[in-house]
Design goal:
InterPro entries: Fatty_acid_hydroxylase (IPR006694), Sterol_Desaturase_Related (IPR050307). This is Fatty acid hydroxylase domain-containing protein. Its main location: membrane. There is one protein chain. The chain is an all-alpha fold and 291 residues long. It starts with a helix and ends with a helix. It has one domain. It contains 11 helices and no strands. The model has no long low-confidence stretch (mean pLDDT 90). Helix 6 (135-160) packs across helix 8 and helix 8 crosses helix 9 (246-256). It has helices spanning 2-23, 30-43, 46-72, 91-113, 116-122, 135-160, 189-206, 210-228, 246-256, 267-271, 276-290. The structure holds zinc ion (2 copies). Residues 157, 161, 170, 174, 253 line the site of one zinc ion.
Length: 291
């Protein structure tokens, strides 16, 4: 019964996306992207695409998205958007973070990435251009993945804060009380595996093409680097997403250690009232601003 219900919801969502898709004009990017995709398929094996392709997508996107936040520290006019003004970025911390990150990426994440090919083979996930969902589908699927990942993250992250286990695993991620973008994946290897598992649940539910894997990696990195950036920049388009947590929300988690456990959305924290300390703090800040 429940499976049927979920299937119905999913097929209704697909129909809605199909309708939106039919209203959109032909995408001018489609021709060059198609040529590049087919070139990749002709020149590399599925194993190479799944392994090295995923590694390159992850590394490129990670450091590309970290770049704006990294540059902001040198721009005096951006300093008014820094959330914790009294704790500027230091070279020492950023270098330490960079080294740990490379270790994590190549010794923890790369072995996991090596499983991508077998994952796609096991679930018969296609690679060809013809069966690739168009971008409105990909976007809708990524949103679905984010809802699932956020739920997993909320409960497991909250559990990792339990005083009996906090110091063994999650303490590493909290080494920086004023986060910066590069710190998004700075974590204990076990945390990378425990919280990282949430990334794959959505993939198992929605994945019908290898392109979704890369689209979802991109969306997830964009989100986590934004919330760790330490800057609340104006006109951030991510804030158009309903219930989007954002940098102020997660920055407070690093400053306060208690509350705001969600990764992307605010609804679980609101439902369980774990955002009460944050709301009090925000109200106080607003009063201070008015004075
Ligand atoms: Zn935490
Ligand atoms: Zn964090």
């Amino acid at each position: 019964m429940e499976v049927n219900g979920t299937t119905n919801i999913l097929s209704s969502a697909y129909l809605a996306v199909e309708y939106v898709d039919s209203l959109l004009p032909e995408n001018p990017l489609q021709v060059p992207v198609k040529a590049a995709w087919n070139h990749m398929l002709q020149n590399y094996s599925k194993f190479q695409i799944a392994t090295w392709g995923s590694l390159i997508v992850h590394e490129l996107i990670y450091f590309l998205f970290c770049l704006p936040g990294f540059i902001f520290q040198f721009l005096p006019f951006m300093q008014k958007y820094k959330i914790q003004q009294d704790k500027p970025e230091t070279w020492e911390l950023q270098w330490k973070c960079f080294k740990m990150l490379l270790f994590n990426h190549f010794f923890i994440q790369l072995p996991l990435i090596c499983g991508t090919y077998y994952f796609t083979e096991f679930f018969s996930i296609p690679y060809d251009w013809e069966s690739m969902p168009r971008w409105p589908y990909l976007l809708a699927q990524c949103f679905g993945c984010a809802v699932i990942e956020d739920t997993w993250h909320y409960f497991l992250h909250r559990a990792l804060h339990h005083r009996r286990i906090y110091k063994y695993i999650h303490k590493v991620h909290h080494e920086f009380t004023s986060p910066f973008g590069m710190q998004a994946e700075y974590a204990h290897p076990l945390e990378t595996i425990i919280l990282g598992a949430g990334f794959f649940i959505g993939i198992m539910v929605f994945c019908n093409h290898v392109a979704l894997l890369w689209a979802w990696v991109t969306v997830r990195l964009l989100e986590t680097i934004d919330v760790h950036s330490g800057y609340d920049i104006p006109l951030n388009p991510l804030h158009l997403i309903p219930f989007y947590a954002g940098a102020r929300f997660h920055d407070f988690h690093h400053m306060n250690f208690v509350g705001n456990y969600g990764s992307t959305f605010t609804w679980w924290d609101r439902l369980f009232n774990t955002d009460s300390q944050y709301n009090k703090y925000s109200d106080k800040q607003a009063v201070k601003k008015d004075e």
